[in-house]
Input
Amino acid sequence: LESAVEDAIGRRNAWRAGLFTRLPELEIWRGLAPPATADDLTRLLDAPGKALLQFVVDEHDLLVMLAIAPADPDSAVALTANVVTIERQDLAERIGRALDRTALAGVEAWRKGSAELFGLLPDEIVDGIEGAASIIVVPDDVLWRVPIEAMPIGPEYLADHAVVTYASSLSTILRAPATHSNDAAASVVVVHSPQLPSALLDKLKATTPSWLIRPGEAAGAEALRIEEAARADKDDVVEALAVHGGADATSARLKEIGDAAALHLAAPFRVNTASPLFSPILLTPVSQEIDGERPAPREAEFEIRELFNLERVAPTVMLSDPAALSKRDAAAALAPVAWAWRAPGATTVILRRWGGDEEIARDVMAAFYEGLRAGRSAAEALHEARRAVRRTDAGSTPAAWAGWLILIGKQPEFNQ
Output
């Protein structure tokens, strides 16, 4: 029997090797490609000022690793690793206190409230990220909730010195499948304010009572703000803006993105921590007429797993519902969600960690799309949008600007 099993395994491995030789991307999609190693860091950290900050949370320890690009191209990447002894429960409690609404709502309150959390970072790690111009953060477990960009650095924030993005792993960036080319650098598709059946709303109240559905008026105002910002620019930019709201905010619109540069979804969305690929985006249900009869509308829940069936979607996707990560540990379940968006071509996914002042949030979104139209990358556009808001009196607190999480799926591009 052992001999037969060994022979069967050998034949299967040979068949699979032949399959991956013919279809090399399939090995990546199945997560079977060799994981990235420290030797691959030179490809990611290919210019001075770039850094990778990664965490591993254990029950009794916190591992913090930092890789910094060398000033000399012929030198090796500088690697630093530290183990911090702390119970996972203690770490979670520190995060909870730091992210308290009262702490987030004030500049000084945040500095005090987050001090015991960021104080865990060793000095050499802090010194390393202080000098970085762009940082990719790979969190773990409960640390997905923490806005690293809001870390106080002297009288400022880390975001005042560096462009901060997030990734689920080094391998997802360096072993990313190829994406389709996209020349429509300024086009944006907005899907907002779906008309949800009362039966669906009743179902949600019974099954997920903690999910607060944002009023359609808020999503509509958001779409209008994005449109107004586009009209403030050149006339030809407006032609590259498609807005679908109300009865037109259907799943069919997700299938008709074409060569748009960005998809903005102002529709109810919440990550399902137990089964992330079943996380629903709520859209207007579609009724299809068959043989002259109109059946009941199809369920108005577009689940993340259905993204694998789409041929193409915009490379940048923003989901603006503040309830997206409201479920406990939702942020830690983002890896499969981002991977699903990656299937039809989205390499950057932006979500909100929390709600807050909707007017300020609209300012961030409008400035973000202005940055995209100006030719900035998604990471740079969001960085500049939040910086502009942070310079105002109303937007200076972390609650106002630090709630946006930008998750990348390939090596980021920077113009500076």
Notes: The first strand starts at residue 50 and ends at 57. The mean pLDDT is 89. The first helix runs from residue 2 to 22. Residues 286 and 322 are 25 Å apart (CA to CA).
